[in-house]
Amino acid sequence: MGLADAVAQAMKEWAMERGATHFTHWFQPLTGATAEKHDAFLSLCDGKAIERFSGSMLIQAEPDASSFPSGGMRSTFEARGYTAWDPTSPAFLVFDEVGCTLTIPSVFVSYTGDVLDKKTPLLRSMRELSRAAVRVLGLMGRRARRVTPTLGPEQEYFLIRRDLYVRRPDLEVAGRTVLGSAPPKGQQLEDNYFGAIDARALEYMAALEREAWKLGIPLKTRHNEVAPHQYECAPIFQALNISCDQNQMLMDLMRRLAKERGLAVLLHEKPFAGVNGSGKHNNWSMQDETGRNLLDPGRSPEENVEFLFFLGAVLRGVHRRAALLRAGIAHAGNDHRLGANEAPPAIISAFLGDRLTLILDTLLEGRTVAAVAEEVIQTGVEVLPAVRKDNSDRNRTSPFAFTGNKFEFRAVGSSQSSATPMTYLNLAVAEALDEMAEQLDARLRAGEDRTQAILSVVKEAYADAKPVVFNGDNYSEAWAQEAARRGLPNERVTPGALKALIEDDTKALFERYGVLKPHELDARYRIELEKFNRMLDIEAVQMLRMVKTGALPAAWRQQTLLADAILKCEAAGLECAAQREELAIYTGLIQDAIRFVDEVRQALAGAPDEHACAEKARHQVAVLRPAMGRLRGACDTLERRTDEALWPFPSYHQLLFQ
Ligand code: ADP
Ligand code: MG
């Protein structure tokens, strides 16, 4: 029996003892969700039922790949796709009413070897980051075998009543409300953040924690978020790939547990216009195999200097690859959130805090490197650890903030898989580390003192990357202008942001590091654009349906009520000029709405063909979205002027306060 067979045998026994009847390769296609196809352990052998799970079944499976997006890499007649066991992520058991399933984390590739999932590039980027960081540590005189990026994703979400949710088809179909007038009291009063958690949410959170731990997901933190019925949970950080897998599992679990409790969880970035949106703050760092955090300033002078090197590499990577990082968080949902004045803007910048910025500036403005080295080293024990204190005053407006011993990538959307943005971040930092390693190597060969050489390289990296550092208010208009002066990219909408994926420079990077081939990036670009186009179509169609079958009929009734009231007043000889004026305004709004319905319909009908996805995306942004905005404006005004009892959809007030 081969090793794989032995492992498979042990896994099967372990799973079956706990009631498993089926197994599945669980993978992450480019839809952004997860996929699984269950097979029973039960098999037939000479007409007799036996339980069978061999090494080859563990290692590889062949789900039909034709209905997963491939971005044109695979024609439907060659639909074969293969899943392969990812032994770096633990298998787990998923229990349901009837039994349980042995779930095997897997990668997903096509017959020709093209990458069809989010996990394969993630694992490759981790390999590259590790290689580059190990080399750097070696040059610093520290032997490390492996460096692993770590991730602790803070997950924000809304939790609302299910009976209200099912009466909002927009929430059900598109994940966000396409109609709805914002309540007078949203989060404006800011009394919700970290407030007492209500009993309903608390019971849900407790169940979520219980079930999550059963799956091996170490959920640790829970609290209220800024908006009513908005919450956050966070696990203890782990190796990046495991944490990504577990966040995908967690989102599924969140939906299921909410449903079981007559609740609905909203993971969309912006379920409610005008109300705080949701992110997934990706806390990211790197550690060696002993668990030492490379972004921890450390306690000794040597550690301080090393820390500065890795910090410099992150800044350099984020600066150089800002457009790529922006592409990694680009999707229809996040467009509503980024730059909406309650989330970071579309400009990628890094927050360091005053203390660290001062240290790096001192290095840059160079009094001699030796002098700075002395300062850093002499005060090292006190100075760098004090970075933590400095960061207690967090900059909540930054998309990428240093928080004492890790970076927090806050611009990631709440619904999205962390795998893609983390792949891009790993790669950006790996590239910077490689470049800096070259420079360090050259200096050391030339016989420079090690500390001095390290600080010189940090200085050069910081000199290049300094424009990406911004400690001020990211929400301000002044920053947008300043960022433009600094030459930082500011792509406000998804289609523009995605272009970074198909730049020659990006393709060269991915190819050099063996993460994705150029045509695989082309495919990803297409897939993301198509997803964007489709999501906007879905929202628009849903909006039209709700307006025509719900909002307008309610408005006719309100209009009739008003007209009847006027007739009756007149018959009674009463003054009713004010009502007449109201009726005129109301009727005008109805006419607006009808006109805008037509505009949205035309915008849908007039869109370029789906295959021309870039042109279609331009149309969606320039024509469809503004038309939807106008229709929404008219309908939301109607809602505010209509008898509550007549309005067919639960209001923002009901959704957010009941
Ligand atoms: P906050 O004050 O932002 O909530 P926490 O310390 O609670 O900060 O951390 C938030 C998340 O960051 C948690 O998931 C935590 O496990 C994670 N985290 C802490 N240290 C690291 C690290 N070195 N690498 C990655 N994630 C980390
Ligand atoms: Mg945090």
* Tally of discrete structural domains: 3
Number of separate strands: 17
CATH class of the largest domain: Alpha Beta
Helix content: 40-55%
CATH superfamily of the largest domain: Glutamine synthetase/guanido kinase, catalytic domain
Q: Provide the residue-averaged pLDDT.
A: 90
The tally of helices reads: 23
Strand content: 5-15%
CATH architecture annotation of the largest domain: 2-Layer Sandwich
Spans of at least 5 consecutive residues with low confidence: 378-392
Structure summarized in a few sentences:
By secondary structure, this protein is of the alpha+beta class. It has helices at 3-17, 55-59, 119-139, 162-165, 169-174, 199-214, 240-260, 301-320, 322-327, 332-335, 354-365, 369-378, 380-383, 387-390, 419-445, 450-465, 477-485, 494-498, 504-512, 518-571, 577-605, 613-640, 652-657, and strands at 20-27, 35-40, 42-45, 48-51, 60-61, 81-85, 92-95, 100-110, 147-161, 219-224, 230-235, 238-239, 263-266, 280-288, 350-351, 400-402, 407-409. Strand 7 (92-95) and strand 8 form a beta hairpin.
What does this entry look like structurally?
- The protein has 658 residues and is an alpha+beta fold.
- The chain has 3 domains: 2-113, Glutamine synthetase, N-terminal domain (Ubiquitin-like (UB roll)); 123-181 and 188-516, Creatine Kinase, Chain A, domain 2 (2-Layer Sandwich), CATH 3.30.590.10; 532-657, Four Helix Bundle (Hemerythrin (Met), subunit A).
- The chain has 23 helices and 17 strands.
- The protein has helices at residues 3-17, 55-59, 119-139, 162-165, 169-174, 199-214, 240-260, 301-320, 322-327, 332-335, 354-365, 369-378, 380-383, 387-390, 419-445, 450-465, 477-485, 494-498, 504-512, 518-571, 577-605, 613-640, 652-657, and strands spanning 20-27, 35-40, 42-45, 48-51, 60-61, 81-85, 92-95, 100-110, 147-161, 219-224, 230-235, 238-239, 263-266, 280-288, 350-351, 400-402, 407-409.
- The strands form 3 sheets. Strands 9, 10, 11, 12, 13, 14, 15, 16 and 17 form a 9-stranded mixed beta sheet that branches. Strands 1, 2, 5, 6, 7 and 8 form a 6-stranded mixed beta sheet that branches. It has a two-stranded antiparallel ribbon with strand order 3-4.
- α8 (301-320) runs parallel beside α16 (450-465) and α21 (577-605) runs antiparallel to α22 (613-640).
- The longest helix has 54 residues, at 518-571.
- The termini are far apart.
- The model is unreliable at 378-392 (pLDDT under 50).
- The structure holds adenosine-5'-diphosphate and magnesium ion.
- Adenosine-5'-diphosphate (ADP) binds next to β9, β11 and β14.
- The site of magnesium ion has 3 residues, from loops.
